[in-house]
TrEMBL record:
Residues 35-75 form the SRCR domain. It holds the Pfam family Sulfotransfer_1. InterPro entries: Gal/GlcNAc/GalNAc_ST (IPR051135), P-loop_NTPase (IPR027417), SRCR (IPR001190), Sulfotransferase_dom (IPR000863). One of its GO terms (biological process) is sulfur compound metabolic process. This is Sulfotransferase. It comes from the Eukaryota. Belongs to the sulfotransferase 1 family. One of its GO terms (molecular function) is N-acetylglucosamine 6-O-sulfotransferase activity. It comes from Menidia menidia (Atlantic silverside).
Length: 433
């Protein structure tokens, strides 16, 4: 029975068919929820077919379509959002999703929205405009989750011609966008690892958004990484959208580590901080507001998530980057369990290759965005690099966030530099809602 069920589900639905189905599902919201609840409460391998037959036997036409849809919802379409902040380990974490062959992964599409808004007008900094920007972010996410990649054309500059663009941000971070059918020149196996920005563009030529949309539809799931949404509350309408089954992976990291990483990645912006780090004396013009708001947003989102509001039920997972870096396989399987997907072997292999090896020389890597070979050392490296005075300042600015997320304060340089002394609390940290 199960084989038959899979075989039937194997064929792809037509696009229009799917749309009809979505509308029907939306209008049957209550039933839909009931069905989902039922599915969740059972664990047999082939409930999909059973459920369809038993629920919709009456109307044979509907039953047929339902059979197909539910066979497919044996692995229903997931809409995964890796919700993070800059330099919190999101490139690495994103790769763990990107490696799954059934996942269509997009690395920070909201970049284009922000660029378009930032350039269009200076008055966009006001709060009304912040709402507009967040609305545009959500619109784009919704369109991408439904594989309408053409929607990106509203924001990509220069404007794509004939649905083709050379300016798709960080295209190379996505396997799907650098392999057939989107890229005809190179096989999936040839995808370099870590992704090579120039190689993908060179081999594949400009990106055809029509064929990218087709590739998206042909994969079972969509995962998007973003560092541009301030708070999880800004995503509420998407979690409630009946067209989506949104799964939010909230990635957090020790703000002291985030700051140290930003100082290196964005050294122009952080010149004053670097002077402070080098001299041990705080320059008058250091901008403390960015790290402060990073901490506030992180704590606000985690606070919301841990309160388990009903709109986040089964949709929110809090992940500390440190936990992932210290036990990548264990934590990655937790992430996969949460999103409801099998952890494919390719994911396991990728993690093994990218977290333990000593082989590669750092010069091969695009440091700013590359993932890392020795994830544990990388996650703790800030403790050897950041001046104690700065650490103390961040601890004062972010004390509530550090306490909430289970990061210990240090009270001396010796404590800071002693890596045998862990700053990451174990056990007490409640991570799943
Ligand atoms: C925004 O403006 C800057 C400076 O004028 C320019 O370099 C950049 O390409 C523009 N970005 C977009 C997306 O239009
Ligand atoms: C983009 O891809 C679509 C579908 O594969 C194709 O029909 C179209 O001709 C392509 N556009 C260009 C400009 O190559
Ligand atoms: C801070 O200064 C130390 C030397 O005192 C240096 O090794 C380290 O790289 C600096 N850290 C950053 C983030 O610039
Ligand atoms: C953080 O610092 C503020 C102000 O100094 C203090 O009121 C608050 O209790 C501290 N929070 C924690 C968790 O220590
Ligand atoms: C480093 O920390 C460990 C664990 O807390 C402690 O046992 C050890 O004495 C510390 N080493 C130094 C040099 O302080
Ligand atoms: C643990 C590990 O991967 N060790 C490797 C480190 O690099 C040398 C030289 O490339 C290899 O011989 C080791 O096996």
């Amino acid at each position: 029975m199960c084989e038959e069920c899979r075989a039937r589900g194997g064929g792809r639905m037509e696009c229009s068919w799917k749309t009809v189905l979505l509308l029907v599902c939306a209008s049957l919201g209550v039933q839909y929820t009931a069905i989902r609840t039922l599915r969740d409460s059972l664990s047999g391998p082939c409930q999909g077919a059973y459920r369809c037959q038993s629920r919709h036997r009456g109307d044979s036409r509907w039953a047929t379509s339902c059979d197909d849809s539910w066979a497919q919802t044996d692995s229903p379409r997931k809409h995964i959002l890796l919700f993070a902040t800059t330099r919190s380990g999101s490139s690495f974490t994103g790769q763990i999703l990107n490696q799954h062959p059934g996942v269509f992964y997009v690395f920070e599409p909201l970049y284009h929205v922000q660029q378009a808004f930032t350039n269009s007008s200076s008055r966009l900094r006001r709060s009304l405009d912040r709402r507009a920007l967040l609305g545009a972010y959500r619109d784009l996410l919704l369109n991408l989750y439904t594989c309408e990649l053409h929607f990106m054309e509203n924001y990509i500059r220069p404007e794509p011609q004939d649905h083709v663009t050379s300016s798709f941000f960080r295209r190379s971070s996505s396997r799907a966008l650098c392999s057939p059918p989107v890229c005809v020149e190179t096989g999936d196996k040839m995808s370099p690892d870590p992704p090579d920005e120039t190689l993908c563009a060179k081999k594949c030529g400009p990106l055809n958004l029509t064929s990218a949309s087709a590739s998206c539809l042909s994969r079972e799931h969509v995962a998007i990484k973003s560092v541009r949404i301030p708070e999880v509350g800004d995503l509420r309408t998407l979690t409630e959208d009946p067209r989506l089954d949104l799964k939010i992976i909230h990635l957090v990291r020790d703000p002291r580590a985030i700051l140290a990483s930003r100082m290196i990645a964005f050294s122009d912006q952080f010149r004053a901080w670097k002077i402070w780090n080098a001299t041990g004396r705080q320059p008058r013009y250091v901008d403390l507001s960015q790290i402060t708001s990073t901490c506030k947003d992180m704590a606000a989102s985690a606070g919301t998530g841990l309160q388990k509001p009903s709109w986040l039920h089964r949709r929110y997972l809090l992940v500390r980057y440190e936990d992932l870096a210290f036990s990548p396989q264990v934590k990655a399987s937790e992430i996969y369990r949460f999103v409801g997907l099998e952890m494919h072997n390719r994911v396991r292999t990728w993690i093994a290759k990218n977290t333990n090896s000593n082989a590669s020389s750092p010069s091969e890597w695009n440091y700013r965005y590359s993932t890392t070979r020795d994830s544990r050392a990388a996650a703790e490296n800030w403790r050897l690099r950041l001046g104690f005075d700065i650490v103390r300042t961040v601890q004062n600015l972010c004390n509530d966030t550090l306490a909430l997320l289970g990061y210990r304060l240090v009270h001396s340089v010796a404590e800071l530099r002693n890596l045998s002394h862990s700053l990451v609390e174990q056990g007490t940290f409640q991570s799943v809602t």
